[in-house]
Design brief:
alpha/beta; five-stranded mixed β-sheet; 24 helices; 20 strands; about 40% helix
Length: about 650
């Protein structure tokens, strides 16, 4: 076409025709490509741009020398390279105005700016498309960018998202705290609750269903087929995150899902050296997400895309070994005396075993991640169970301690510490995140080596004792609990008569005053408060907790700050229980939240929830709990 008076030549339509499979002459495609490249080289015989550059000054030659002429031999060699080239550029140029106009009209396929696309990135997207059997795919800067951008693009104000209980914590955090601020309703169901899902979709409707397959960290299994059928019936977008399963083991699109999502950082890239996310599925849905990503800017760079391309090449080989190792360890631990429970879909006691073992659901296995719970002293929330699990983690010699999964190296984490350290006891109890929960992400090491390492580490779960793998299940020794002796454990905080008035400071209290106050009162932590907005006279809300150990350490290294306000040195993460909590729950919370950095014994804040604000009622210390226990034991002996 003649655009703005400029002519742009186009190839004849016959040249662009793609013959059918029966029409292709052997070698014809290769000859056509070779002829096209020869023509490309010939076009530059009369290109005088290099002459102009070489006549320029030093700066001009430094900027453009060897690069201004884009075609010719360099272009040919780039296309002939076996490995996909890393196109490390932020912007793309055009040869004339006609090209950029044609690009805007969609008749000149190319790229314009790195935020909207890149050849290396597109190669990675097409590889993901091929793996998942998807119409289109989008690679982005991280798995969290993939999920958040997807939700923001596809769920409008007043939308409704349905998700499942067990999932990656940051995903849960986004859907429960960010989406509601944007007018999006959220419903959370058990991964196996198909009846509940149908009732919700039928009576309330929904915009999008989102869940993981397999879930993190408890390895729950969802029924992809039935969920996709329900979503299709009620016109709901179905998106499944298969980071744990990988396309080697499970392909949601084949089972009817609209979208499949990955944290490409994990199995796809597979080497713990790149952050990226991937979303694949229906073309029209990917187009909406791609458009918003171009605005928000969560793009992946070309080098990361190349690492993703390289990693996916060995995906099947790696996952096969990881499947094998995880299944072997799960089987070995199922009846181990030091283990309370194993979470892995090959175990017949797994809650979703029936769905997981259905023919056609999982092609190769269930991935390299398994979770299991250390028995400890039999109380999943006790300090001893916490310590026993820490001893197991520290005794391992092959896995690294750290978050993430899917790489060639094995990684292990005590979930209570790595992912939920700042979460109060009641939250962890609802999510079944016990003090003994371990997540092991198997790498590609030899199966027997990793299994032997796990078994030897389990001999350290009890201090001073070795747990033989063929022994009877460990029993907690000691006298039977006596209801009279342990009645104090069941007392409610609100019913205790002798709790002292809370000792508090405000945000403006000086550091030195706070230290002196804690010293005079014999306490090592106290709440930082402010008047409760809209509350009665004297009612205060807790906004932070100040620690004697942390504050003293800061003042020793920065003595000039003794008169500074205390609030910047306080922690906004603290243990809170309702007044209806029992002393046993308070004791468990204190055990679980001992400050190991500074040695503080800690306190539990007893507060009522007033519209998200914590109305202070009491402060209970470890000394208080011991006093009640001592009084109860003394009374029981009388």
């Amino acid at each position: 076409s003649d655009i703005l008076g400029l002519q742009m030549s186009r190839p004849n339509s016959k040249d662009l025709a793609v013959p059918g499979p029966g029409d292709v002459e052997p070698g014809a495609i290769g000859r056509a490509e070779s002829e096209e490249m020869a023509a490309n080289l010939a076009r530059f015989d009369n290109d005088d741009r290099n002459t102009t550059i070489n006549k320029g000054g030093t700066s001009t030659r430094a900027v453009h020398g060897g690069e201004r002429q884009k075609g010719g031999l360099k272009a040919r060699a780039t296309l002939d390279a076996l490995a996909t080239p890393i196109v490390q550029t932020a912007t793309f140029t055009f040869r004339n105005t006609a090209e950029i106009v044609a690009y805007n009209e969609g008749t000149y396929p190319s790229f314009e700016y790195g935020r909207y696309g890149n050849p290396t990135v597109r190669a990675a997207e097409e590889k993901v498309m091929a793996l998942e059997g998807a119409e289109d795919a989008l690679v982005s800067s991280s798995g969290m960018n993939a999920v958040t951008t997807m939700l923001l693009a596809l769920v409008d104000k007043d939308g409704h998202v349905v998700t499942t209980t067990d999932c990656y914590r940051r995903t849960r955090q986004f859907v429960t705290t960010i989406l509601p601020k944007m007018g999006v309703r959220l419903t959370v169901i058990d991964p196996a609750d198909l009846e509940g899902l149908e009732r919700i979709l039928k009576t309330e409707g929904a915009t999008l269903f989102f869940s993981e397959q397999i879930t993190n960290p408890l390895t729950r299994i969802i029924d992809t087929v039935k969920i996709a059928e329900l979503c299709r019936q009620y016109k709901v977008i179905c998106c499944i995150d298969t980071t744990f399963a990988t396309p080697v083991n499970h392909k949601p699109i084949q089972h009817g899902a609209d979208l499949v999502l990955h944290s490409g950082t994990k199995y796809l890239a597979g080497h713990n050296d790149v952050l990226c996310g991937a979303l694949a599925g229906k073309k029209e849905l990917i187009a909406k997400v791609r458009s918003l990503q171009g605005i928000l800017g969560g793009v992946v760079d070309a080098h990361a895309a190349y690492l993703l391309l390289r990693g996916i090449k060995t995906l099947s080989l790696r996952v096969a070994q990881q499947n094998k190792t995880a299944a072997a360890i799960a089987a070995a631990l199922e009846h181990h005396p030091a283990i309370e429970k194993v979470h892995y879909p090959t175990i017949t006691s797994h809650r979703d075993y029936a769905v997981a073992s259905r023919p056609g659901m999982f092609e190769g296995g269930f991935g390299g991640v398994l979770s299991f719970e250390i028995k400890g002293d039999g109380n999943p929330w006790s300090q001893e169970t916490f310590d026993a699990t820490a001893r197991f983690i520290d005794a391992l010699k092959i896995p690294y301690i750290g978050p993430s999964l899917g790489g060639v190296e094995s990684l292990v984490e005590q979930v209570r510490v790595v992912g939920y350290y700042d979460q109060p006891l009641e939250v962890r109890q609802k999510l079944s995140i016990t003090n003994g929960l371990v997540r092991l992400a198997c790498g590609i090491e030899d199966t027997q080596d990793l299994l032997d390492d796990v078994l030897q580490a389990l001999t350290f779960v009890r201090p001073g004792a070795v747990v033989p793998t063929d022994a009877e299940p460990l029993m907690i020794t000691g006298d039977e609990e006596d209801d009279k002796t342990n009645a104090w454990r069941r007392k409610l905080i609100r019913d205790l008569p002798d709790l002292r008035v809370p000792i508090t400071v405000t945000a403006e209290t000086s550091c030195v005053t706070a230290v002196q106050l804690m010293k005079s009162q014999g306490i090592d932590q106290m709440p930082v408060v402010q008047p409760l907005q809209g509350g009665a006279s004297g009612e205060v809300e807790v906004i932070a907790v100040i620690s004697m150990g942390a504050l003293s350490k800061r003042l020793l290294t920065n003595p000039d700050q003794v008169d500074a306000p205390v609030f910047p040195f306080a922690s906004t993460k603290f243990v809170v229980v309702e007044p209806t909590a029992t002393l046993e729950e308070v004791a468990d919370a204190l055990h679980a939240y001992t400050d190991r950095r500074y040695g503080d014994m800690g306190v539990v804040i007893v507060a009522e929830d007033r519209g998200g604000k914590k109305l202070l009622r009491h402060v209970v210390s470890r000394v208080d709990v011991l006093a009640f226990e001592t009084d109860s034991l003394a009374a029981a002996k009388q």
